[in-house]
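Data deposition worksheet. Section B asks for the primary sequence of the deposited chain exactly as it was used as input, without tags or linkers unless they were present during the calculation. Section C holds the resulting structure in token form. Section D is free text for depositor observations; keep each observation to a single sentence. Incomplete worksheets are returned to the depositor.
Section A, Depositor: J.P.
Section B:
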Amino acid sequence: MNLVEAIQIEKTYLSGEAQVSAIKHADFSIETASFVSFVGPSGSGKSTLLNMIGCLDHPSSGSLTVAGKDVNSLDRYSAAKFRGEHIGFIFQDFNLIPVLTIAENIEYPLIMVQNWPQQKRQQRVNELMDAVGISDQASKYPDQLSGGQKQRVAIARALVTHAKLILADEPTANLDHDTAYRIIDLMKKMRNDYGTTFIFSTHDPKIMDAAEIIYTLEDGQIKQTKGGTKHG
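Section C:
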């Protein structure tokens, strides 16, 4: 089953009086429980594509469906609600809230987005902390953790709402070599355990090697893939 389906999507911007094509006639599909990387040089369209899949932006034309929902049909409010129910995000600089403990950082989406009752929240947070191996860090604050530990927190936070799709923007960029491999292994384990789809925007060859499918972008066009089949 395809979790993401793009048919001839384009994204154009106005830069002064000039029209810039960030994404050009892109066709691709991503199945549930996939491990996928979008790769390419800066300015190739990776971030634009991730933003559209994450319902932070709309295609200018074409059809983009995420978890059965037409992205173009979502207004600002419904897009935020949809993201909260279906999509998690992992960032290269972790984006943890410094004044919250590790447990509170992971719990935060359940309060702000899904408003779960306290007992259910605590149970889910404990489950995810145990799953990513940071239960002993629950009462610490982000500045007391290593980079690898922070990224484990970010992974737990992204998964805590039972997100079907995790979008990860350069998630290993600020990690040393050995820690990056451990984080990649952890994300694959989370995919296997929860059936979650991971989509990366990355330059990191370690993630490219781990990815089962690679879409390579250049000048807004998808040029080739590793694994899978590119349509069009």
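Section D:
The chain has one domain: 2-226.
Helices lie at 46-53, 76-86, 102-112, 118-132, 147-159, 177-194, 205-210.
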